[in-house]
Amino acid sequence: MVSLLFFSITQVSGAVAEEPDRSIEVQHGAYLARIGNCMGCHTTKGGQPFAGGRRLSTSFGIFVTPNITSDKETGIGLWSQQDFWQALHQGKSRDGRFLYPAFPYTEYTKVTRQDANAIFAYLQSTPPISQSNPPNDIFFPYNLKPLLAIWRTLYFKEGVYEPDQSRSDAWNRGAYLVQGLGHCNACHTSRNMFGASQDDMLAGGQIMGMNWYAPSLSSYQEAGSGDWPIEEIVELLTIGITKSAAASGPMATVIKQSLQYLSQDDINSMAIYLKSFTENEGGNTSGVRFLVMSGSLQKHMDFGGQLYEKHCKTCHGSDGKGVPGIYPTLADNRSVMMSSPLNPIRSVLNGGYPPTTAGNPRPYGMPPFQQVLRNEEIALVVSYIRNAWGNRSSLVTAVDVDRSKGGN
Known about the structure:
It is a single chain. The protein has 408 residues and is mainly α. The protein has helices spanning 22-36, 38-41, 81-90, 105-108, 113-125, 145-155, 169-179, 230-238, 249-257, 264-276, 295-311, 313-316, 334-337, 342-350, 375-385, 398-404, and strands spanning 7-12, 15-20, 55-58, 61-64, 137-138, 205-206, 213-214. Helix 3 crosses helix 5 (113-125) and helix 8 packs across helix 10 (264-276).
């Protein structure tokens, strides 16, 4: 179900033999590499595709992505299919060394052997690029390999995705893509002090090495989509903006580089799977409720409202409803009211655009305000939008704004 290995018929010594059609396999592998967004990590800004060198900053140190082009000296040109399968499925390098889970083999282990072979065939078809990248710079004691072996024993479970026979083919295809190549759990999960995922239900968490919050996809209070029609989920995942939501930050990058290129069947399957998380959940959010707003709190809101009037109303409207499909609504917007205020703070600080996609080639965006507003003022305006028009959520402080400036 999850993959096809294509064959051509070849005449060999008077017998008919089946051999893989390499051109079709390579094309299929290129598509799968798009789903996994391999280029996104293995290409540094301004660098050659798949040549590596991108620095991933984490609380455990800096990981530098390797060269995965077909170059025989600095890439994976000398690797075999088995070597590549060992990396994806078992988290081991060609020489048997354990890989750090900054490479998401904890998710890629679910990928089938056929799909892994197709991706390998595609990477082997890429132009060889000679580029040696610096080694990882991992902090003590995480650089001690025996600790990595213990980590794997505790937190890594090897195994290809097993279809749920009680579910439809489309649901299972979506689960395979989300849990495996899409490695959505790499961002949409909380992690313990050792960097291990706390769950596999996409329950949300701060993205490691970034001051962005990946919302829960299994809770209606955050980004659960059980009450959305399939068509709108697909629209958000492929275009990046709908009448009621817009992607920003790292998610916008994923849509731009990966999701917009998925086939209609695959993106529909992902939407069906994601919708199933909360399709039976009630549509009531439980935020912070102020029965009576105190005088000091009202004054706080008034200051934030004045800043909103000056800087935000032109696009988002006095009613906070924005312009459908252009400027996202802020009223009754779950992403604004989530318990973590990181994303609205980052958006005000740095501005941002929905992804540039085939369906939205010239997106409208928001300018950055960190050069215009002080931390205290950003805290006031974010507090305002989190509590205006019927929104209710916690207030934001200048300290929150200052802390959010770390990361990329």
